Amino acid sequence: MAEPTGLRERKKAATKAALSEAAFRLAVAKQGIEAVTADEIAAEAGVSTRTFHNYFPSKEAALLHDFHETTGQLLAGLRERAREQPIWDAFRDATIDMHFDQKFDIDAMRCREQLIHASPSLIKEQSGQFMELFAEAIDIVATATGTRTGDLYPRLLLGAALVTMKSSTEHWLADPGDRTLAETITEAFSYFERGITQPPTATAA
Amino acid sequence: MAEPTGLRERKKAATKAALSEAAFRLAVAKQGIEAVTADEIAAEAGVSTRTFHNYFPSKEAALLHDFHETTGQLLAGLRERAREQPIWDAFRDATIDMHFDQKFDIDAMRCREQLIHASPSLIKEQSGQFMELFAEAIDIVATATGTRTGDLYPRLLLGAALVTMKSSTEHWLADPGDRTLAETITEAFSYFERGITQPPTATAA
DNA sequence: CAGTGATCTTGCGCAGTCTGCAAAATTTCA
DNA sequence: TGAAATTTTGCAGACTGCGCAAGATCACTG
């Protein structure tokens, strides 16, 4: 039951990817996911509408499939790192190690960001996935900081970390300037080490 | 065009409130918003289904009506305060000034929190409203900190503030202990003044 | 207080989502 | 090759959410 890697598994993964890509293509072409129907996505991927809904509960979920997988990997990375370094560093390094800038096409990411930003339903879907991530990560944070899941501190820390992950990536994507993604992430996480309350002595642009 | 306060306005507000309350009542009775239909909510409030959708785009929105109004008021309070005190203090005090503990019934709030927590669709809806709040508040934060809307810093600050608002209120609601809501909020906001990275020297419980 | 314009409510239709179910089609493995 | 397991598919059904036009209600003026 480890990794069958049979034909079956590969086909399922391929179908899922095809559906996700179809959703993306159509959303770009029609300038918004609302203008795309589940029927169209299924047709574009060469499966029936019913099959589409076997893979994804909604077209929004299909479009954000990569994101969802990414959060899963990040969670795994975080779990590893949380055992051997401070939790804040673990978040930062796990985020950097995802290498979004190398794994995905930058223009496609920008495009996807625009689609999300312009669609209430996609914003909700993505936010929902973040909350899911929150729920899955809170135990890790509580354990790492010697607090309990219900305590205020781990929740604030985790919330801050997720906000930092999302904001830094988005910011770099919108305007990389002359910095690498890793640098931007590092900078963002460092804001919280001395307190976010007071603006940094205006070095940044 | 200031405040007509005519019969019409009052009736509309009453209908909206009635629908929202009906949604809440039914969701509680049926142990979850998913088990409630728009038809039932409309019937419970004594209007047609079509009218329900004139007021709210979804049953989730109806249930979170109070929350949505609250964020509007908080935004107004923040705008005021941001002119005369540091932005972080402005967030904290604006949050405290909402007096959730006095304006709403505590048990009802707990009940609502449970409903939200148990429902993916409600989590998404609420997250979406937070993102809306984010979009509406980012200009205030940028202005107050002498940065630009697209900069990283104001986004991190705002994100941290929203997380703090939400987490502190939820935490207090789940277990007030011997503290007032205002005290819990103050404590939560203070975490970020010295850096959230390192746990506080274990004074808290 | 009648009349007229503005606004709100309602029913109907329609496109679309999402799920359960059972019959094909396909893959796996002995 | 021949079951057994799994996937795909069509179909039916409940529900959402919105446009439209007709009817009901409210507001304002003379």
Description:
Two copies of one chain form a homodimer. The first copy, chain A, contains eleven helices and no strands. Chain A is mostly helical. Chain A folds into two domains: 7-62, Arc Repressor Mutant, subunit A (Orthogonal Bundle); 65-191, Orthogonal Bundle (Tetracycline Repressor, domain 2). In chain A, helix 5 crosses helix 6 (87-97) and helix 10 (152-174) runs antiparallel to helix 11 (181-191). Chain B binds a DNA duplex (30 and 30 nucleotides) through residues 4, 6-8, 11-12, 15, 37-39, 47-51, 53-54, 57-59.
Helix and strand topology:
2 copies of one chain form a homodimer.
Chain A: H1 7-29, H2 38-45, H3 49-55, H4 59-63, H5 65-81, H6 87-97, H7 100-103, H8 106-117, H9 120-144, H10 152-174, H11 181-191
Chain B binds a DNA duplex (30 and 30 nucleotides) through residues 4, 6-8, 11-12, 15, 37-39, 47-51, 53-54, 57-59.
The named CATH superfamily of the largest domain in chain A: Tetracycline Repressor, domain 2
| N-C termini distance of chain A | 52 Å
Low-confidence stretches of chain A: none
Helix content of chain A: over 70%
The protein's oligomeric status is homodimer
List key phrases describing it.
Tetracycline Repressor, domain 2, 205 residues, Arc Repressor Mutant, subunit A, DNA-binding, 71% helix, mainly alpha
Give the structure's gist in a few sentences.
Chain A is mainly alpha-helical and 205 residues long. Chain A has helices spanning 7-29, 38-45, 49-55, 59-63, 65-81, 87-97, 100-103, 106-117, 120-144, 152-174, 181-191. Chain A has 11 helices and no strands.
